[in-house]
Input
Amino acid sequence: MKITVLGTGSVGVVFAGRLMDLGYEVMIGTRNVTESLSRTTGDGYGGPPFSSWYDVHKQVKLGTFAEASAFGEVVINATRGGASVAALKLAGESNLNNKVLIDVANPLDFSKGMPPVLLPELCNTNSLGEEIQRTFPRVKVVKALNTMLCSLMVNPVMINGGDHNVFICGNDSDAKASVIELLKHFGWEMQNILDLGDITASRGTEMILPLWLRVMGTVGTAAFNFRIVK
Amino acid sequence: MKITVLGTGSVGVVFAGRLMDLGYEVMIGTRNVTESLSRTTGDGYGGPPFSSWYDVHKQVKLGTFAEASAFGEVVINATRGGASVAALKLAGESNLNNKVLIDVANPLDFSKGMPPVLLPELCNTNSLGEEIQRTFPRVKVVKALNTMLCSLMVNPVMINGGDHNVFICGNDSDAKASVIELLKHFGWEMQNILDLGDITASRGTEMILPLWLRVMGTVGTAAFNFRIVK
Output
């Protein structure tokens, strides 16, 4: 199966690497291929520059947002949340229509300093997941995985034997079913995948970020997750 | 020890009843005592009218917001989040100053229908906890317990053997230490009490509400909670 990953930041390369290891054909999309390959600094989260990563992952295809989106049967949005809608417009509606788009991004606003807040226009009465769905009505948007560290997204057994939760939501049941299959490949157990309903539930999963950032500070690691108990 | 509970809704009576059972002297504060006692309907969350509850809890004192706030050494804000600052103004700054105020309320906005959103002026770049602290700078505000069903707040062993998390935050370390003692009386174990830092962390715990509401719908019960695993 062909999967597109949009974004060359730490989240994008974690997805691309894991998907390649699992046997998928992967193409990464970026705004400007030459620029991405000439970058000499990481994305600020401690990872190497994209070019260093790509040097040892040459099996992954690389192209523009549009080329990569034309390639994949499923598209993963791993661009920065504040730039996601613009990136998806560059990807091109016709390259995305009728495809499942897994949105793992968060609309973080770093303009007011640290810790970031959420972009006000994508918070509380709206969300990035909804905004993408509204902008691309024929794309099957599934919000998923955005509530945790990226290495956990694709490898949940990293902590607590994999026993913690991932939230998904979206308007298309078949799209959600296909995302659940992918999540299982990553190592998620069915009982830990919580379907929260339609895409408006993105508000809830994105609004957990301010708590997530504080909990990270308190527990002293980003490698944690929420587990629902009852 | 004398504790004040502000609010006669389901959260208020759950706190008052539990505190009484634990041997505290409790006084409930309300806007209008006569009106609260003459109410014939519940608060919409399935509980009985306040007067029916009070008939069998006569040991709990009852007074105005101001009378009750003058009584307690610790004050618990269990009023509706959107009305909390106004209620605390009625309680009176001089009755609250230098006391620990535990804010368990959430600034839910039901004006746009169900499910509620958060009041925009108390979301993302502000929060109810912060707003109370800003309005009453000499009160020791500790935000706590607002991320779960009220019966769990005061009796965590109700689910999962008590093994799930409560978040606290506030600017005064001694105030947080005294709240931790109270939480232990309720049954919280020390390792499950996560101190998220200063009062601005209220943003995080209040912004979890939209997710909480969706998870409730998915798991089919309000008697659930978040547990951090790492």
Remarks:
- Chain A has eleven helices and eleven strands.
- The longest strand of chain A covers residues 25-30.
